[in-house]
Design goal:
The complex is a heterodimer of chains A (about 300) and B (about 400). Chain A is mainly α and about 300 residues long. Helices cover about 70% and strands about 0% of the residues of chain A. Chain B is α/β, with parallel strands linked by helices and about 400 residues long. The chains are: A mainly alpha (about 300), B alpha/beta (about 400). Chain A: It is found in: Cell inner membrane.
C-alpha cells in the first residue's frame, strides 16, 4: 500500500477527521469569544467557566430533575445566558468605556470564583454523563471507526457557527449589531435600543459557550476545570483568526483542529504547543490575525 | 566477625541512645503534632485530599485524641502539587510549629522534595499518596516511610497478570513527564521479562484534553493491550475516549496502570468494565475493611481510596509506635515502627523495611460489569492476592543507600 509521509493513508485520514471534530469545538467556542469582543470590546475570560457551567447544568438537570440531553441542549444555554445577562447588567456594563484590561480582570476574577466554588462542591475528578441513546454506536468508515456522537458534534457546531455568521453578516438584526459597534450614539438616534442589543449579544455569546459545554459533556469528564484547560487554546485561535472576526474564528478553529491533529501523529509531545507556535508566526507576519482588518 | 562486633556495638549504642532519648525527651512540647500535606484542590485531590485529612482525623479520634496522656493535634496544607510550596510549608511546620510527623503526600515530585527537608531536620514522614518507586530507591531516607503502593508494585501486579492472560503485545499511552516515563519503563521490563513485547507508544503532554487521536494510533498499532501510563484526568479521558471508539469491542484490551476507586466511580462501570488494576486496598474485601469503610463513608460521603485507607492505617501505626516508645523522638519512633508488624483492616503482617518501604499484600482487581454490581460502590472484584514479598522491589535490586550492598 502506498504511504503518505511514512503513514498509511487511512491513518492520516482518520487523524484529519478527528482534527476536524476538535476544530469544530474550537470554532464554536472562539465564535462566542469573537462576537463578545467584536461587539462589546470585552475580552471574556469567563468563557471557559461558562462552558463548564453549560456542562454542569446539563449534568445537574439529568441527575436531579431527569432532564434529558436534548432538552439540556436548549435549556442549559438559556440558563447560563441568563446568568451572563445578569453579569452584564450589573458589572460588565460599567466597564465598556474603560481599557480592555478592566473587563479582562473582572471576567478572569469571576471565572476563578465560579471554578473555585464548583471545585469546592463537586471536586475535580469529573462526573459521568452518558451519550444519549440515539447517538450511541458508530460506523466503520473503512479507514477508521467514527462514533456517531462525534459526527453529531461536527454537524451541530457547523450549523450553529454558519447560522450565527449568516445572522450577523446577512440579516437586518446583524446590521444593527454591526452599526452598534461602529457608532452607538447614531444608532440610538435612529430609535434602536442599543444597551438591550448589547446585553442580548453578550447573552448569545455566553449561550454559545454553554452549548459547547453540553456538547462536550458526554465525551469529556464534566469537571470544574474542563473550561480552563480549553480556554487558553481558544484564545489563541481567536488571536490567530483576528480579534473580533466572526468568519476568522470559525475558519481558524477548524484549521487549528486539523493542525493539532496532524501534530499528534508526527510529534505528539508538541500537540499542546503547536497552536501557540502558529500564533507567534501569525502575529509576526500579520499582527491583526489571518482575517483581521489592519488598524 | 569484625562486622558482627560493629553491629553489636551500634545496636547497643543506639538502644542506649533511644532509651536515653525516651527518658530525657518524652513527648516534645507536650503534644504529638501531625502535619497533613496533600493536593487539596487540584488534579489529584480526589484520591487523597480532604478525604485523607478526614481519615487521619478518624485515626486520631479512634486513638482517644491522646497518647500517653499528651494531646494529639493535626494541621493541614495544600501543596498544589508544587515541590517548592510543599517543601517550604514543611520547613515552616518543623521550624515554627514543631511538627513531629508529616502524613499524606501525593505528587511524587513534592514528596521527594519534602523528604529531603524531613531528613535534614530529622523528623518523620509517612508517604501514602505518591506513586514513584524512586522514593524508597535512589531517594530513600532513614526518616521516611512509603506506605501504600508504588510504580514497581503496580507494574508487576497488572503487567504480569495481563501478559499471563495472553496480552503479550503492548502499546503505551504515556504521560510525558517523570512519573509516566517511570511507569512505562517499569511495565516495559515486566512485559519483556514475561515474554511479551512493546510494539509502540505515544507520549502525550500532561493534562491532554482530547485523546481521540492517540486512541486511533493505538488501534492502528494492532497491539493486544493498550497500557495507560498516566494518572488522574488523563486516565479518565483516555478511558472515556477508548470506550467511544470501540477499542474493547474491536478486540483490544485496556490496562490501567494507576487507577483509583474514585476514577472508576467517576467514569461509571459502563466505561470501565473489565479493566484490570492493582490496588493496595479495596473496601469490600473483608468484614474489617467493610466496617472501617462504612464509618469513613458516613463522614465523607464516599468510599475510601487505597490512599485514604492507608493514611488512617499509617497514622494509627505511628501513634502506636509513639505510645510504645514513650516518646515522639524520631529515631525511637522509627525503629519502633519498623520492628512492629502492621495488622489492621488495611494490612496483614505489613512490615516497614530498612529502605522505608512498607510491604504488604497487594491485590489484582477487575472492574465489575454493570450487571454484576449490587450497589453504588460495588465496583471491583478481587482476582488474586499478590503476596507482600512478590509485590514490591526486592532489597537485592535496591539502589537505596541504607540497604545497598547487602
Amino acid at each position: 500500500m502506498a504511504e503518505l509521509l511514512g503513514f498509511p493513508p487511512q491513518v492520516l485520514f482518520g487523524q484529519l477527521l478527528i482534527g476536524l471534530i476538535n476544530g469544530s469545538f474550537y470554532a464554536l467556542l472562539s465564535l462566542g469569544l469573537a462576537i463578545i469582543f467584536g461587539l462589546l470590546n470585552i475580552i471574556n475570560f469567563a468563557h471557559g467557566a461558562q462552558y463548564m457551567l453549560g456542562a454542569f447544568v446539563a449534568w445537574l438537570g439529568l441527575k436531579f430533575l431527569g432532564v434529558n440531553y436534548w432538552v439540556s441542549l436548549i435549556l442549559a444555554p438559556l440558563v447560563v445566558a441568563a446568568i451572563g445577562i445578569a453579569l452584564e447588567k450589573t458589572l460588565l456594563r460599567r466597564l465598556y468605556k474603560e481599557d480592555h484590561l478592566y473587563g479582562l480582570l473582572l471576567t478572569f476574577g469571576l471565572a476563578l470564583m465560579i471554578e473555585g466554588s464548583f471545585v469546592h462542591f463537586f471536586g475535580v475528578s469529573g462526573q459521568p454523563y452518558s451519550v444519549p441513546q440515539a447517538l450511541t454506536g458508530g460506523n466503520n468508515l473503512g479507514f477508521m471507526f467514527l462514533p456517531t456522537y462525534r459526527a453529531w458534534i461536527i454537524v451541530a457546531s457547523l450549523v450553529i457557527c454558519f447560522g450565527t455568521w449568516y445572522m450577523i453578516e446577512r440579516t437586518k438584526l446583524g446590521a444593527y449589531l454591526r452599526a452598534g459597534t461602529e457608532n452607538p450614539q447614531l444608532l440610538q438616534a435612529f430609535g434602536i435600543n442599543v444597551p438591550l442589543l448589547i446585553t442580548l449579544t453578550y447573552g448569545y455569546g455566553v449561550a454559545l459557550a454553554a452549548f459547547a459545554g453540553v456538547l462536550a459533556a458526554p465525551i469529556y469528564s464534566v469537571s470544574p476545570v474542563m473550561g480552563s484547560n480549553l480556554l487558553i487554546v481558544v484564545f489563541a485561535v481567536v488571536v490567530i483568526g483576528g480579534m473580533g472576526s466572526i468568519m476568522g474564528a470559525i475558519v481558524t478553529g477548524l484549521l487549528m483542529g486539523l493542525i493539532e491533529g496532524l501534530t499528534k501523529v508526527f510529534y505528539p509531545e508538541a500537540s499542546t504547543t503547536v497552536i501557540f507556535l502558529v500564533m507567534i508566526v501569525v502575529l509576526l507576519v500579520r499582527p491583526a490575525g489571518l482575517f483581521g482588518k489592519e488598524a | 566477625m569484625k562486622m558482627l562486633k560493629k553491629l553489636m556495638c551500634s545496636a547497643i549504642v543506639s538502644a542506649m541512645a533511644a532509651a536515653g532519648a525516651a527518658q530525657a525527651k518524652g513527648i516534645s512540647d507536650d503534644e504529638v503534632r501531625i502535619g497533613y500535606l496533600a493536593d487539596m484542590s487540584g488534579t489529584y485531590s480526589a484520591l487523597a485530599g480532604s478525604g485523607g485529612l478526614e481519615a487521619a482525623k478518624m485515626a486520631i479520634e479512634d486513638f482517644g485524641g491522646k497518647v500517653n496522656g499528651k494531646k494529639i493535634t493535626i494541621v493541614s496544607a495544600d501543596d498544589q502539587n508544587k515541590p517548592d510550596i510543599g517543601a517550604n510549608k514543611v520547613r515552616q511546620w518543623i521550624d515554627v510549629d514543631n511538627i513531629d510527623m508529616v502524613a499524606g503526600m501525593v505528587s511524587s515530585a513534592v514528596t521527594i522534595a519534602v523528604n529531603k527537608v524531613v531528613e535534614a531536620k530529622d523528623k518523620i514522614s509517612i508517604v501514602s499518596g505518591s506513586a514513584s518507586s524512586a522514593i524508597t530507591n535512589q531517594y530513600c531516607t532513614a526518616n521516611s516511610v512509603h506506605y501504600v503502593y508504588d510504580t514497581y508494585a503496580l507494574a508487576h501486579g497488572t503487567g504480569e497478570a495481563v501478559v499471563q492472560e495472553g496480552g503479550d503485545t503492548w502499546f503505551f499511552l504515556t504521560a510525558d513527564y517523570a512519573f509516566g516515563h517511570a511507569m512505562e519503563g517499569d511495565v516495559t521490563s515486566v512485559v519483556k521479562a514475561s515474554g511479551g513485547k512493546v510494539v509502540g507508544g505515544v507520549r502525550h503532554p500532561l493534562a491532554t484534553n482530547d485523546f481521540s487521536s492517540f486512541i486511533l494510533q493505538a488501534q492502528a498499532s494492532g497491539a493486544k493491550i493498550v497500557g495507560l501510563a498516566n494518572a488522574g484526568a488523563d486516565t479518565t479521558n483516555a478511558l472515556k475516549t477508548a470506550k467511544e471508539f470501540g477499542v474493547v469491542q474491536a478486540g483490544q484490551k485496556l490496562a490501567g496502570l494507576l487507577i483509583f476507586l474514585t476514577d472508576v466511580y467517576s467514569l461509571g462501570l459502563e466505561t470501565t468494565q473489565g479493566l484490570q488494576l492493582t490496588t493496595g486496598f479495596y473496601w469490600d474485601r473483608t468484614p474489617e475493611t467493610r466496617a472501617w469503610a462504612e464509618r469513613y463513608k458516613e463522614r465523607t460521603g464516599a468510599m475510601p481510596t487505597m490512599v485514604q485507607a492507608g493514611i488512617y492505617s499509617s497514622v494509627n501505626h505511628y501513634l502506636n509506635a509513639v505510645k510504645a516508645a514513650g516518646t515522639d523522638a524520631t529515631e525511637a519512633v522509627m525503629s519502633q515502627m519498623k520492628k512492629t508488624p502492621i495488622n489492621d483492616f488495611f494490612a496483614t503482617n505489613g512490615q516497614i523495611r530498612d529502605d522505608g518501604r512498607m510491604i504488604h499484600d497487594m491485590y489484582l482487581a477487575e472492574v465489575k460489569k454493570p450487571s454484576e454490581s449490587q450497589s453504588e460502590w460495588d465496583l471491583y472484584k478481587i482476582l488474586r492476592t499478590i503476596p507482600a514479598d512478590k509485590a514490591f522491589r526486592p532489597l537485592s535490586e535496591s539502589k537505596c543507600k541504607l540497604v545497598a550492598g547487602r
